[in-house]
Design brief:
The protein has 124 residues and is mainly beta. It contains 2 helices and 7 strands, in the order ββββαβαββ. The strands form 2 sheets. Strands 1-2-3-4 form a 4-stranded antiparallel β-sheet, with no helix packed on it.
Length: 124
């Protein structure tokens, strides 16, 4: 599919994308798929798209290790970039929110002071 979309820094551009998933996050819809120009899985805000058009070209299948759950667990607040190790120092009362946001397999380490803990992982 080709997606004419509004880039806030420039003007309208057209991208060739093989769409995989549609996701709701932070009050916005995002289309997730393989971008020919980026040569990787990326996400695009749906409200910035104008008249998507279906192309008669082969669909790029998702990478073998792609799952929408893993992709969005790694992408923090829909920003893109290189993955890096992140550690958050949290008060004891935030464990539920950390698990809600990053999943049950988020790395945590108790600090021994009032239930405080570090939480982290590899994120974009």
């Amino acid at each position: 599919m080709t997606i004419p979309r509004k880039n806030p820094k420039t003007s309208w551009t057209s991208l060739s994308v093989s769409p995989y998933d549609l996701v709701w996050d932070s009050d916005r819809y995002y289309a997730v798929g393989w971008s020919e120009s980026h040569q990787k899985v990326v996400k695009f805000r749906v409200d910035r798209m104008l008249y998507p058009d279906f192309l008669k070209k082969p669909f790029h299948t998702p990478p073998e290790d792609y799952t929408v759950e893993t992709y969005f667990r790694q992408v923090f607040q829909m920003y893109d970039g290189e993955p890096c190790q992140v550690t958050l120092r949290c008060t004891g009362g935030l464990m539920k929110q950390i698990i809600d946001r990053f999943g049950e397999d988020v790395d945590t380490r108790e600090l021994g002071v009032g239930g405080d803990f570090d939480a982290g992982g590899h994120y974009i």
